[in-house]
Amino acid sequence: MLRIWKATINSRNGLAFAFRSEQAVREEIFALLLSLPLAWLVGATAMRAVELVCSVAFVLTVELLNTAIEKLADRLTMDHDKQIGRVKDMGSAAVGVALLMAGAFWIIAIIERLGFI
Fold first, then answer.
1. 26 is in an annotated binding site
2. Is 28 annotated as a binding residue?
3. Which residues of 61-94 are buried (b: 16+ CB within 10 A; e: fewer)?
4. Distances from the Cα of 17 to the Cα of 13, 63, 98, 109, angstroms
5. Dihedral sign, CA of 88, 89, 93, 99?
6. Is 88 annotated as a binding residue?
7. Which residues are catalytically annotated?
8. What is the C-alpha separation between 111 and 98, in angstroms, rounded?
9. Structure pTM?
10. What domains, with CATH codes, occur in the chain?
């Protein structure tokens, strides 16, 4: 039980640090909070609403991982390094793919809600 408590505190600390230091994390948390009521309006079923919220939470998850990679890379060196630049670009690409996925889920849900599918 103590290990779970410590892990929870570490997670909270990591999220708080990311929130304070990264604009993208703040924007995605805002989007997640906004998605909570909107998903229930857009989703044709309860399961669809949960999927919509989870798609936004997934974007936040990938952003947190990307932020961790960037912070670690910057800790290694602040000099321009081609390989580190590529790693950062891949993390950014992962966020982009997650955003495209979430966008597709929301667009499909809206089309479904409008009765086109």
1. yes
2. yes
3. ebbbebbebbeebeeeeeeeeeebeeebeebeee
4. 6, 13, 22, 33
5. positive
6. yes
7. 63
8. 20
9. 0.91
10. 1-114 (1.10.287.3610)
Low-confidence stretches of the chain (pLDDT beneath 70): none
Cα-Cα-Cα-Cα dihedral sign, residues 90, 95, 100, 104: positive
Residue 81 is given by DSSP the state: -
Number of residues that make up the chain: 117
Q: What is the pLDDT of residue 114?
A: 93
Which residues lie below 8 Å from residue 44, measured CB to CB, with a gap of 6+?
A: 109, 112, 113
Q: What's the pLDDT at 116?
A: 87
pLDDT given for residue 77 in this prediction: 83
